[in-house]
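Structure (tokenized):
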């Protein structure tokens, strides 16, 4: 199979719609990361996503819909705060989990009685969803456990020869996946942190919790696996420049090519090391993280991550991805 990267023109959108309706998989851009989409109503199409990614069968998917789609067709009863949250944050990088009516493929939710729905803000994503005119089940368009893609080329690197079409909407502006919010209880609970923060949600809903998975529990949301977003090279997780320098020297002396990934403030103390600088603000670090992880894996034998000291805002989501990518832990 020849994999085509195409800009979002009328011809490409028509082809994307034909592929989705015929049960195939198409990669498309959103404001967060690129998605690997299929018809959410088709068992066979949804199963193709899992097979292509090598995704565990218990890891549920998110259904993406165009602005204006009547989600009452897909969800059951909802709490009073849910419409307020939709009005405040959608379209945007927020996925809301509702009781499901069971209308989409049973493979989307992996046996759960809930359904995760997102209305992306990206004009490119909206153009794709309107052309398809169907709910589209889509995880991030990367091989399972690899770094999520924020450009069409990242998707191509993982799926060349495996899918027919990648729609190119340019680099993603947000950089990390959507916040996933459980809207089945009395107060909303964050299942996966992202660009819409706990504080933002609480300001609208009155309160917001954060769900902590128990050992051995079936995932309620994508992105809850421990080792995730991982570059294809050795990694090390550090809390200080001193610790990183020691690892850097040891790798260099062994003939390797180490590289340090860190926030701007930490890079000031690493002037003699090869560094990839995430940035200074939470938004900047979110936007740069996955692109730099993919850049680092191409040249480094050891990619050393120094945990950012920045806190607040979207940093909860950044630190979640950072620690999972490097196999470390951080204190919230």
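Design, position by position:
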């Amino acid at each position: 199979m020849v994999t085509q990267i195409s800009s979002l023109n009328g011809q490409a959108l028509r082809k994307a719609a034909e592929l989705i309706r015929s049960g195939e998989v198409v990669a498309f851009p959103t404001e967060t990361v690129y998605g690997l989409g299929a018809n959410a109503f088709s068992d066979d199409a949804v199963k193709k996503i899992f097979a292509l990614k090598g995704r565990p069968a218990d890891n549920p998917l998110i259904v993406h819909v165009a602005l204006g789609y009547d989600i009452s067709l897909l969800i059951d009863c909802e709490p009073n705060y849910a419409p307020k949250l939709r009005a405040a944050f959608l379209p945007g990088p927020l996925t809301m989990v509702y009781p499901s009516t069971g209308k989409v493929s049973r493979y989307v939710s992996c046996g759960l009685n809930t359904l995760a729905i997102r209305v992306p803000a990206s004009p490119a994503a909206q153009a794709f969803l309107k052309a398809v005119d169907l709910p589209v089940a889509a995880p991030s368009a990367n091989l399972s456990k690899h770094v999520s893609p924020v450009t069409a080329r990242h998707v191509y690197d993982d799926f060349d020869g495996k899918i027919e079409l990648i729609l190119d909407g340019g680099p993603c502006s947000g950089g990390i996946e959507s916040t996933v919010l459980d809207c089945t209880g009395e107060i909303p609970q964050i299942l996966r942190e992202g660009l819409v923060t706990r504080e933002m949600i609480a300001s609208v809903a009155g309160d917001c919790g954060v769900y902590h998975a128990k050992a051995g529990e079936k995932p309620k949301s994508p992105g809850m696996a421990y080792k995730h977003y991982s570059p294809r090279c050795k990694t090390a997780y550090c809390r200080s420049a001193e610790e990183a320098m020691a690892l850097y020297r040891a790798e260099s002396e062994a003939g390797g090519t180490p590289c340090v990934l860190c926030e701007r403030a930490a890079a000031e103390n690493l002037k003699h090391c090869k560094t990839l600088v995430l940035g200074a603000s939470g938004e900047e670090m979110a936007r740069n993280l996955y692109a730099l992880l993919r850049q680092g894996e191409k040249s480094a034998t050891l990619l050393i991550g120094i945990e950012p000291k920045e806190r607040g805002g979207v940093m909860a989501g950044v630190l979640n991805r950072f620690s999972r990518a490097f196999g470390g832990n951080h204190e919230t």
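Reviewer-requested clarification: Residues 282-299 form the longest helix (18 residues). The longest strand covers residues 94-99.
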